[in-house]
Design brief:
The protein is mainly β. Helices cover 4% and strands 47% of the residues. The protein contains 1 helix and 11 strands. The protein has one helix at residues 102-106, and strands at residues 3-7, 10-13, 18-25, 33-39, 46-51, 59-60, 68-73, 78-83, 92-99, 116-117, 121-126. The chain starts with a strand and ends with a strand.
Length: 127
């Protein structure tokens, strides 16, 4: 069993930055693909970013490409989402997710195959 705990959310002005962290406990962290998703009020959960292996390139939604960077530190069992140039439309609850199955590895942009989810952290961007 893997437990994921997000932190780092908060209120920031447009153009500002935040770094979200996702601390994992349980099984070998390095074997998990990690993803970030978000859900705004009244909207469906959407993909933000994912990283499969440490040192590998990340996958990004078009809406955040060039502004957000996903990374992981396997020694610390932690994944990160650095968010720069934030916009009001980035306001949402951000969730981290972890998975090891083949479907996650080949389609990390899809939420359903992820096996473990954090409780979410609120990000609010004011205009």
């Amino acid at each position: 069993q893997v437990q994921l705990v997000e932190s780092g959310g908060g209120l920031v002005q447009a153009g500002g930055s935040l770094r979200l962290s996702c601390a994992a406990s349980g099984r070998t962290f390095s074997s998990y693909a990690m993803g970030w998703f978000r859900q705004a009020p009244g909207k469906e959960r959407e993909f933000v970013a994912a990283i499969i292996w440490s040192g590998g390139s990340g996958y990004y939604a078009d809406s955040v490409k060039g502004r957000f960077t996903i990374s992981r530190d396997n020694a610390k069992n932690t994944a990160y989402l650095q968010m720069n140039s934030l916009k009001p439309e980035d306001t949402a609850v951000y969730y981290c997710a972890a998975g090891t199955n083949t479907e996650v590895v080949f389609t990390p942009m899809i939420s359903r195959p992820y096996e473990y989810w954090g409780q979410g952290t609120q990000v609010t961007v004011s205009s």
